Amino acid sequence: MANPNAISNFELMVLLALIRLGDEAYGVPISEEIEKHSGHDVAIGSVYAGLERLQARGFVSSSVGDPTPERGGRAKKYFKITGKGMRVVQETQRTLIRLWKGLPRLEGGKP
Q1: Which residue ranges in the chain fall short of pLDDT 70?
Q2: C-alpha torsion angle, residues 98, 33, 10, 60 (rounded to 10)
């Protein structure tokens, strides 16, 4: 039976970036945070698509800030992780640790 709270690797990275950035997280810094830690380019559209999926599932919430002149009068949409999102991150971490444990190739042992 499929886990309704299962998230993709990219969604996990988005949630981890939100945790790192705190309440002032919006698209560009989220993308930059993922790029900084993964070493891969991240399209801003991918970040927003992931945020929409996560918000639809209740893992993140959003709010709209004040319009800013440097954005041509447009407001930024800020995102933060919810309690439900934090629980999913923690469960994903526990699952990955259980899967990782006991694999000699990944623990420096012989294959």
Answers
A1: 1, 71, 106-111
A2: 90
